[in-house]
Amino acid sequence: MQRAAALVRRGCYPRTLGPWGRGQSSAAAEASAVLKVRPERSRRDRILTLESMNPQVKAVEYAVRGPIVLKAGEIELELQRGIKKPFTEVIRANIGDAQAMGQQPITFLRQVMALCTYPNLLDSPSFPEDAKKRARRILQACGGNSLGSYSASQGVNCIREDVAAYVTRRDGGVPADPDNIYLTTGASDGISTILKILVSGGGKSRTGVMIPIPQYPLYSAVISELDAIQVNYYLDEDNCWALNVNELRRAVREAKEHCDPKVLCIINPGNPTGQVQSRKCIEDVIHFAWEEKLFLLADEVYQDNVYSPDCRFHSFKKVLYEMGPEYSSNVELASFHSTSKGYMGECGYRGGYMEVINLHPEIKGQLVKLLSVRLCPPVSGQAAMDIVVNPPVPGEESFEQFSREKESVLGNLARKAKLTEDLFNQVPGIHCNPLQGAMYAFPRIFIPAKAMEAAQAHKMAPDMFYCMKLLEETGICVVPGSGFGQREGTYHFRMTILPPVEKLKTVLQKVKDFHIKFLEKYA
Amino acid sequence: MALRTGDHSQAATNGLKEKVLTLDTMNPCVRKVEYAVRGPIVLRALELEQELRQGVKKPFTEVIRANIGDAQAMGQTPITFLRQVLALCVHPDLLNSPDFPDDAKRRAERILQACGGHSLGAYSISSGTQLIREDVARYIERRDGGIPADPNNIFLSTGASDAIVTLLKLLVAGEGGTRTGVLIPIPQYPLYSAALAELNAVQVDYYLDEERAWALDVAELRRALLQARDHCRPRALCIINPGNPTGQVQTRECIEAVIRFAFEEGLFLLADEVYQDNVYAEGSQFHSFKKVLTEMGPPYATRQELASFHSVSKGYMGECGFRGGYVEVVNMDAAVQQQMQKLRSVRLCPPTPGQVLLDVAVSPPAPSDPSFAQFQAERRAVLAELAAKAKLTEQVFNEAPGIRCNPVQGAMYSFPRVQLPPRAVQRAQELGLAPDMFFCLRLLEETGICVVPGSGFGQREGTYHFRMTILPPMEKLRPLLETLSQFHAKFTREYS
Lengths: 523, 496
Fold this sequence. Notes:
Chain A is an alpha/beta fold. Chain A has helices at residues 2-10, 26-35, 55-59, 67-80, 107-117, 129-140, 157-170, 186-198, 218-226, 245-255, 279-292, 316-322, 325-328, 361-372, 379-389, 399-425, 449-457, 462-474, 501-521; strands spanning 91-92, 181-185, 207-213, 229-234, 260-267, 295-299, 333-338, 351-357, 430-431, 440-441, 444-445, 476-477, 479-480, 493-496.
């Protein structure tokens, strides 16, 4: 709230000429120019310092790769140098990077990528025909038939068509227009771009962006950078991180006092919280957005990561459409997907797309213009996205292996989700909501009063203190809940479920042992 | 699910047809952004291509996209070794294939070892894979005659554009009269003006001297700076060398003078050096800002803040689509460098395939490697062809009355000056178009040749230019240049 007020005070002033303007004669101008203050020469400070740099950038935080991860890096270096620790390796359970933790890439995807990268391989007998067919199709759509050309800024045409076809299939026939599809450098790029276009106004009319608490801290980081107003709405931990429209209403009502709420972000399946919202909930959110005239951002990068048999992924696009034309012709929506999660885990390729619905045609023009400055998203990532949306189908040579690999990855993740939830819930002082989807556990931890004091003495948030101790004593790197946001007085950490099963069991056991010791120590 | 009962009153008060996001409600800074390289003329070119595909008859059979520095789109072939190493990294099964040379395999294995999970699919650390940054540092040291480069000062990026925007973002602060001003060359590559518009920073133009082959004059820098201090706080000076669109390669003396000026005036230097491998003219040589800075000794070497940018999109590689690049920061405040690392971390990491290509580009095959001969031959062929095209372009344009083309010393573009008759200028004004946009649109409609008007890059008032790439295939280039010259002559006659 304080931050919001501070931001309101700063506002967004038009950048105009200074008081001197241009009314002087050229001689006078010259003279006064010579007298203009030059930077101090005698005590030569750097030009770019913490004081002189962009204050909005300074305000940015991103816990997923923040202080605890830097500490983990230091500890790894120490281990490399042979310094003795109570553990032999650092377990990076801080980031949703499946392949870094040993998950195998999907063979078909890499085959098509290799063929696109080095088309000589199209003559090789070691590649299946269906992979070659897809590679040829992609290459033909590229300038000079090469991944090395810039694509159109919106992305390669045939890939956008494939994405539209995928979305249509996924949504049971609800049509998707390729013209509404924008390929992006990971989903983060699309989210950042849409938020950028949305943010305007000054003082009390500065754009407010509603985000879930807990959230994936890309949102708060971009909001900081853009000097927009962050409007928190709390997910209900006691109800499996459910989204309550009354809470949305509360948040927007309070926000209207100091900003212009224009945007509502929702992450489904949730990160870090792992809940999969019900269809009713999604309808309620859409209705709310319609009522309050909010632009909806639906972060759906975990749409393939649904584990609970009682849950299903409902795409915002589909639900919107099925709610009838009053909503489907009016509510402005952007949905995001990525190659980084799901069963693919292709984080490094930076592939993603967004589908925009009901955007004003002039805005679409502005969007393409903005994207054109950065030329295009990496074409290799676009190709990866293409394979994700256009995988082998029954009857194709690669179908069986593809299906097996996909099921194996998803089955594995589901097992690990359950394992994690169950094990954490056996630990006194830890409570873990069901991991219905995504890739993370976000258990709540009880931190005794003495530990809170110790944390304060170290000038750390209590859960940061806890996580630092965990890291130092076990080598396990997780991210404190304060990095994602949480209700005042509650503490959590986010841990990925990505280490291989056996290692995961060990990790969970170690966390359990640590927690019990921690409780005893600070009793 | 239909509209709920009782909500119809809501519908009435909602003003439902009005959108949340319109031109009026959008980010005003984004609205001001322009990027001519893919701007209106290119949109028209796309329409024409569409019409051709639909069988509409035109005075030409194809649209020539001479608007963008994309070599492979115009038929340049990728370097075999680069693609081999990348393919091996993408699909490590190929490490067992007899179709790949051993040195490519060793490279791929080395890179994969340095990746999380030994896979390109893992995020790298945000500044880029450690091993690759070390290789980039070694490249810089070799390039700069042994002057040390620290891998910790190197940040890999999603093309050079990404890193340039990051630096500008860090630099922009203040309000009103203290708002950050950034000096940029006119003519410039319009990423700079676009980024400054988006960041709501103050663009401060300094003019390159067309009469002296686009030379950079410190007196002009001084003029621009002093005027700028009236209304903003100039904090940074951008220089593109070799130049885009202008193609000049600055002399060492010039670079020293710029460094001295920047130091005296307290300006952070941004040196866009993506064309460092594209130097064609006899007597021209690329001098890296880092090298010159260091050789100037203290206080410059130890205190002048500098960021130098490079990319895999240009040079002999032409791997635009992979979005590979890096920035080396020199004498950056340590706390700011941490902030930069933090800012980069929000977007996780640059694309790993682009990182791989960069790695191979900065550590190419050595003479003793099996792939050396082919690599060298391909590299030489690409650069020789570019040099020949640069020369041809300059020559043909200078044969045309009313077209004057400065020497294309480097980069990938010609930026000729065209005389436009007053009646044409008038006609353009009637149509609400910049005169050179009018010229370029007519050129496009009548010949299918798509170039970018000089107004998209900036130029002295009353002068008109266009930027054309030298990239069309050699056999097409001369006819294209001649067609363009003929069109200009016809246009001149029409409006005389």
